[in-house]
What does this fold into?
Amino acid sequence: MAVQKILEIPNPILRGKTTKITKFDEEVRKLITDLKDTLASAHNPEGAGLSSNQIGIAKRVCVVRNFKDNLQANGVDSVPSFVEKILINPKIVSKSKENNIEWEGCLSVPNQYGRVSRATKIKVAYQDEEGKRMKLSATGFFARVIQHEIDHLDGIVFTDRVKGKLVPESFFLEQE
Ligand code: ZN
It folds into this structure.
């Protein structure tokens, strides 16, 4: 268990370049563990994803959560509340023309929320923890989380994309 400090804006590491992973070695495995542990330690608010540069490592690795709200709302308790995925060297290979606008927040931007337009459907190419080339399709909130994290790897923070005002949590909760 190695919980790392989550960097906050305006830390320049959040705006810098990240490099591709080429060796799938012990160092990458440690980074993955740190990302998972750090995300798991975030409460109030919880996070839906975390990128390496948010913990100070400028490499193209992120962890994303695919939430199972839907199943739970239907009384299925035996499924986990989310499934976590590690994306190494992720790249969006296609995007729907259709976008939607939803509220977003970020563990690196405390107590600020804003509405961001994102593609509703994406296809992503990435590598898994062993370096195997994989693809996934994502829709809805999961697609949003992946786009938010890949933005981080490109030095983009969600506030760059906000339509309208950034608001504090108290205001955001009233709007939900
Ligand atoms: Zn973020």
User: Anything to note?
Assistant: Residues 26-41 form the longest helix (16 residues).
